[in-house]
Amino acid sequence: MEAIGTEIHNGCYTSKQVTFSPNFSAVTRIKWTTMTPQKCIDYCSNHTREPSYYAVIAQGNVCYCPNSVKFGHDHVKDKGCDSTVCAGNFRQHGCGGESVYDVYSCKVKERKKVE
């Protein structure tokens, strides 16, 4: 079975307010010139070795796929992430920014492991 990613926007957070698991350097990371929230969610849900429960976008074109995210107490107003447009759609916001992350949850259904 293939995972179906359904975006649930958790908000906009500064890099100091979000902790990834596994540690940041071990998290799957991909950079696209065609980045949109749905592309990141789809990638994290369907194309990583283990399905990720989160899709995190930064700088308009970088997607992270952590297994878990620990949030700080306060999130940045969504305006903090709206200053950077998505690389794949210049009319769309929700793709993080410089030192801020847009965090999405992925609803993941059971699927076969990617070999």
Q: How does this structure look, described?
A:
Helix content is 12%, strand content 31%. The chain has helices at 37-46, 79-82, and strands at residues 7-14, 18-21, 28-31, 54-58, 62-65, 68-71, 100-106. It starts with 6 loop residues before the first strand and ends in a 9-residue tail after the last strand. The model is unreliable at 1-5 (pLDDT under 50). The chain is globular and about 30 Å long. The strands form 2 sheets. A 5-stranded antiparallel β-sheet has the order 1-7-4-5-3. The protein has 115 residues and is mainly beta.
What's the tally of helices? 2
The portion of residues forming beta strands comes to 25-35%
Rounded radius of gyration (Å): 13 Å
Query: What kind of sheet is the major sheet?
Result: 5 strands, antiparallel
Low-confidence stretches: 1-5
Shape: globular
* Overall average pLDDT: 76
Strand line-up in the sheet with most strands: 1-7-4-5-3
Please give the share of residues in helix: 10-25%
Distance between termini? 14 Å
The strand count comes to 7
